[in-house]
Each structure stands twice: as structure tokens, then as C-alpha cells.
Amino acid sequence: MKKSLLLLVLIALSYSLNAQSKRELFAEIDQLRAELSQKDSVIASAQQQEKISTARAAVFERQVSELQDANATLLKNLKIFTEASSRRSESIGATLESLREKESRLKIINDQFSKGDSIALLMVTDFKNTLGEGAQIKIGQGMLALPLSHEFLVGENENADTLSLEASDYLKKVGQVLKQYPTWQLGLITQDNGMIDEENRDAQITAVLDIINQETGIPAWQITQRKLDGLINALEIRLHPDYADFYRTIRKSMKN
């Protein structure tokens, strides 16, 4: 009887221990399942974040590539603009230099004309002071002219081969003024109506040239002479700057 009771106690105790172990095992399994589910959730969340990060990285890479392309285009355009600006600056510089050269040449030309005009005005003043305020002096086309009537030169006798005293004195005074302007060129223009004997006319012109030569030292061959046909007999002394020297100065300025 005692043995049977002991056996029952042992069986009951064994059953109780076995039931407790199962409960603990099931509880542990449930805990593991919960932990596994939590880990799966974490993994799924991490995978989702990885996809989002990958997508963002792709967007960033595309934006970076677009920015790089835009920067490359900008740098290329900037280089083109810089080169164009440089060429434009060089062109403007060359144009300005050319304008300065032309301005310098024009200044030389203007200075030459102004110099001639200034000397002409000074010469007119000297002629007026020497010959009198009533002296006839023509100014035009860059020259001065002193007109002399035939009657003034020889008097009433048109065929006289000598000059009147008044004309001789007048020409001496003209020569005194001319002597002060050795760089100006001298010309003698005669107008003839054909009524005077040619030999006498030549003698009159020679007399004029002789007086000028005596006062200025200018030989007759250096004085430009020209004869014109006209209705009256007259003579005109013309003065103008040295055109050859003027053009030499201009050509020299053009070469520089």
C-alpha cells in the first residue's frame, strides 16, 4: 500500500514538473517569436530606409551630374565671353590707337595751316605798315596777292621800258617786307591784252624782277612767272607758303 502511494506521488510530481517545463518552453518560444518579429520589423524598416537612401543618392547623383554639366557649360561660355571681350578690347585698343594717330596727323596738318594763316596775317600787317593802309592786298586760297595796275607801273606811256619812280619805290618796300619771310614762295602773274610791244613788256617785267632781286636776293629763276591773256594789262605779285616743305611735313607725319 505504501509503495503504491509513493508511486502515485512520484507520478504526480513527474507530471507536475513536465507540465511546468512545457509552459516555460512555450513561454520561451513565444518570447523568441516576439523577438524575431521585432527583429523582422527592424530589418524591414532598415531595408525601407536603405531603399529611400538609395533613391535619394540617385537623385543627388543626378543633380550633381546636372550641376557639373551646367558648370562646364558656364565655364565654356565664360571662356568664350572672355576671349570675345579680349578680342573686342584689342580691337577697341587698336581703333583708339588708330584714331590717336589720325588725330595726331590732323593736328600736324591743322598746325601747318594755322602756321601759314598766322604768317599771312602777320605779313598783311607788315605790308600795311610799310606800304600804307591804302595798299591793295588780296587774301585767298592760302596766298597773298599784291595787284599792280599797268598805269601805276609805267605811267601814261604803256610801252615804256622803265618803271615809274612811284612804282620803283613801292616795289622796294615790297622787297623789304618779303626779305623778312624767306620761307614763302614768290610768283609773278602778268596779264596782257596784246596792245603793248612784247619787247617793252618783257623789259617792264625784268625791271620788276630786278628790284625784287636787289631787295631780297631772290634770283629771277626762283620766282614763278606766268602770263595770262586778258582785257587789260596788269601785274600781280603772289606769295604763298613753301608747298613742297608743307607736303614733306605731311608725308613725314603719315609715315610715323
If you had to describe this structure to a student in words, what would you say it looks like?
The chain is of the alpha+beta class and 256 residues long. The protein has two domains: 1-113; 143-240, 2-Layer Sandwich (60s Ribosomal Protein L30, Chain: A), CATH 3.30.1330.60. It contains five helices and five strands. A five-stranded mixed beta sheet has the order 1-2-5-3-4. Helix 1 (2-131) packs antiparallel against helix 3 (165-178), helix 1 (2-131) runs antiparallel to helix 5 and helix 3 (165-178) crosses helix 4 (198-216).
From the structure above, extract its key features.
256 residues; five-stranded mixed sheet; 5 helices; coiled coil; signal
Shape: rod-shaped
Instruction: Please provide the ordered H/E string of secondary-structure elements.
Output: HEEHHEHEEH
Arithmetic mean pLDDT: 77
User: What is the total domain count?
Assistant: 2
Q: Strands of the biggest beta sheet: in what spatial order?
A: 1-2-5-3-4
Count of helical segments? 5
**Total strands:** 5
Q: Show unreliable segments.
A: none
